[in-house]
Structure formats: structure tokens, C-alpha cells
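Marked as duplicate of an earlier ticket. Keeping the data here for the record.
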Amino acid sequence: METLHDKIQRVVQEHVAIVPYDPRWLALFAEEKQHLLACLPLALIKRIEHFGSTAVPGLPAKPVIDMLIEVTDLAATQQQIVPILEAQGYDYFWRPAWDDDRPPFYAWFIKRDAQGTRTHHLHMVEAHFEHWDRLLFRDYLIAHPAVAAQYAALKMELAHKYPNDRVGYTKAKTEFIVGVTAAAKRSHQRPDP
């Protein structure tokens, strides 16, 4: 049986491939959202959002749909949602919000297709988690195509540099993402003229 350590090592070493934007990603998000709303306890689900590069029209991305799901209670999520999704073949991780293995933790799932290729990442967090800033990042890229193009170039460079190191790839994008998110927060807080 695969240990948690072995499972983590397996998933972080999977290939990082950036592909051209695919307009079907929006439909794949909508299909998965409907699936989740049909099989999960609705009392725990508050909202489901599409974020990450696949949510930005025209942006190249890893072909994995990132979904941000607000749950009312993470402990109840572990008890009620995890068994449902694991029974359907999703990989489940109780992971730290930061990479230093300390709280806050959240529920993270990987959905795969019949060939074992990742198709979706589900990030289940409560309303107060900083993950919601990722929607500001998404919206800023949509509104600023030149910034999205810079991000695309960075992603391509990093995918070449870290082809089998998802942790290294993600860490190397952090400075850019933090800077753009800060700009998004500043522009989001400006009053309309």
C-alpha cells in the first residue's frame, strides 16, 4: 500500500506541461461543478469558482482545471466529502496552505482521467482563507492582457526549467503572482470615479 510520503513524492514529480489555451476548459469546469453539486452534501458547499490559468481566456496552462470551493466547515468536509470523492477515485491530501507544513490546512483533491492524467485540482477552503485572493489574480490577468502575456512567458520558461518538479515550478512563479495580486488588490480597492 502506498504511504502518504510515497503518494506526495509521486504527485510532485509528475510532468509539468504547458499547452496552448483550450476553450473547452470552461466547459470542463462547468461539468465538474455540476458533478460536485450533484454528489456532495450541499449544506457544506457555499460556492465553486474556476481559477488559475485555465480560467484566463487565451493563456497557455497546464491542462488541469483548478477549482476553488468554499466549504462551511473543513472538519465536516473531511468526514463527509473526502469519503465520497475518494470512492470516486480522486487523490486526497490534507495539505498546508503554505509549504512549511503548518496550519492552516485545507482539503485538496486531484481528479484524473482513465489514463491517470490529472484533469482537475479541487481546493476546498473556508471563506476566511487567503486562497480567495487567487480570484483577484485571475481577474487582473483577464483585464490586463500584457501582464497575462508576461505570465505566459514565465510559465513556459519555468516548465522547461522544472519539467518534473511541480514544487520548484510553483515556487518559482510565486514572486510574480504575489506582485500581480498586490496590484490587483490596489486596483480593486480604488473607488470608481
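See parent ticket for discussion. The domain at 4-189 is CATH 3.30.460.10 (Beta Polymerase; domain 2).
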